[in-house]
Amino acid sequence: MESDKVVEVAGLHQRYGDFEAVRGVSFEVSAGEVFALLGTNGAGKTTTMETVEGFRPAHAGTVRVLGRDPHRERRRIGGQMGVMLQESGLFPELTVAETLDLWCDLIPGARPRDRLLERVGLAGQAAVRARQLSGGQKRRLELALAIAGRPRVLFLDEPTTGMDPQSRRATWQIIRDLAAEGAGVLLTTHYLEEAEQLADRLAIMHRGRVELSGTVAQVLAGSGDRISFRVPAQVAVAELPRLGGDPPRITATGGGPAATYTLPGPLLQQSLRELLNWAADRRLELAGLQVRSASLEDVFLRIAGRPAAEEARR
Ligand SMILES: Nc1ncnc2c1ncn2[C@@H]1O[C@H](COP(=O)(O)OP(=O)(O)OP(=O)(O)O)[C@@H](O)[C@H]1O
Q1: ipTM for the complex shown
Q2: Hey, is 271 helix, strand or coil?
Q3: What is the Å distance from ligand 1's center to 208 Cα?
Q4: What spacing in Å lies between the alpha carbon of 22 and ligand 1's midpoint?
Q5: Where are the domains of the chain?
Q6: Whose CA is nearest to atom 24 of ligand 1?
């Protein structure tokens, strides 16, 4: 039976001279799935992406795209791969229509040009030269080029950079539709909301490693819901209750010290009740009271904040 995995990466290492940019990365992308690679600057996302796209051989580990080595067997699978690089490769003097015509002529069975333009929202810009397009419009033209050949696997490196919120949402819908039609999509992004909205699964990279991966819910599980409030002036920090067994973390804010409790999910409601009862018994008002679920940003910042010394020990 043919595997539904369109991308398989196992124990990938990649070096630039003495510097190891990717240090044992593994993940898989299935047909019909959107997989997002997130990470801090320099984490190794683009290096990983370029290796999976076949632009460089793996230094160690295995990479398969549609069951084949994307570097050695690129010719066999290239026609089934759609690639949108981080850097624009458009010819500045060609119009949008000319750009697509040039590209589509090279691809057997390419989608019709006008359908592509409509799909990426550039139908009104067919006669505009590439150099005159806005940053977001350029990205959409590059997306049109990437999907022209009806790829089974689509690689998108920061696909919505430079787009306004409306274009970004429209692009997310295009990507969702492509996945619903059966394409496997691997994308990198710096927009956490993009990953939250779009990705069936994601991996967060930091300094060449995958630190966390799974569905958004799996990545957030165990990250802790939060309760925070400003410490009332008449209460000493030591008098604050323990919630879920732990004392709060105290931080300085413009309005005085703030207390934050990070709780495992199932304890949120019970802990909130305990806190409100504690405050009611003392007739205290908890100014700035906030209750919120863990966000991808919390998880990301925690990983990004890991000191280099901690990495070196691992
Ligand atoms: N050609 C190169 N030669 C030497 N070092 C490189 C080269 N390309 C990338 N690097 C280094 O490898 C590391 C990973 O870079 P990469 O571009 O893969 O990260 P990234 O996660 O895509 O970063 P960003 O989010 O900033 O685009 C960085 O430290 C970078 O400086």
Answers
A1: 0.96
A2: helix
A3: 9
A4: 9
A5: 5-220, 225-293
A6: 41
